[in-house]
Specification:
alpha/beta, five-stranded mixed β-sheet, globular
């Protein structure tokens, strides 16, 4: 049993913090999405993961970001949304980002969240999610988004989570083409 793994560690690449710091204040959803799409593009261009990125915002301030680390870290759970949520929870020292006393937080994601990420959003306590590319855009590029249905979105909305879809969709969808053109592995 000496080789039983008992520790897990991961980190975002060193370029992420200066990349985020270089962006101007994100005062609306489109500006926030541009920051997220910039992260995803940089990740693709550096071969640092897939064409997905996400960020948790409090108003115009970035609280935490995530880029897809599935392939580099060899871990199927390290989606951009999950990483952004985990890092935001660490920032606020809370497993519930909807907890009383915390600011209203918004997750901005380069693509509609997959089935796993929708669960993480629900259990993470977020109240608002904005996405760029749609599920069908990811699936057309070959990605498997899992069992996400219109009823999935209705369920989240019934639980008080506001969903906005298709913000800068065309720009977000272009990331899939860039990823494929650069020989990115679809997983």
């Amino acid at each position: 049993m000496a080789d039983l793994p008992i520790h897990l560690e991961f980190a975002l690449p060193d370029w992420v913090v200066p990349h985020v710091a270089a962006w101007p204040r994100a005062r609306d959803d489109e500006a926030r999405m541009r920051l997220v799409l910039g992260l995803a593009r940089e990740s693709v261009e550096r071969d640092d993961g897939g064409p997905f990125a996400a960020a948790v915002f409090s108003e115009e301030r970035v609280v935490a970001v995530g880029i897809n680390r599935v392939l580099p870290e060899k871990n199927s759970l390290l989606h951009a949304e999950v990483l952004a949520l985990m890092l935001a929870e660490r920032h606020y020292a809370s497993h519930n980002l909807g907890e009383a006393g915390l600011p209203q937080l918004t997750l901005i994601s380069s693509c509609e969240p997959c089935a796993m990420c929708l669960g993480a959003i629900l259990w993470g306590g977020l109240r608002r999610v904005v996405s760029g590319a749609l599920r069908e855009d990811a699936e057309q590029a070959g990605f498997d988004e899992g069992p996400v249905f219109p009823a999935s979105h209705r369920y989240l909305e019934a639980r008080g989570i506001e969903l906005a879809h298709g913000v800068l969709r065309a720009e977000a969808r272009e990331l899939f083409a860039l990823y494929r053109a650069r020989g990115g592995r679809v997983y």
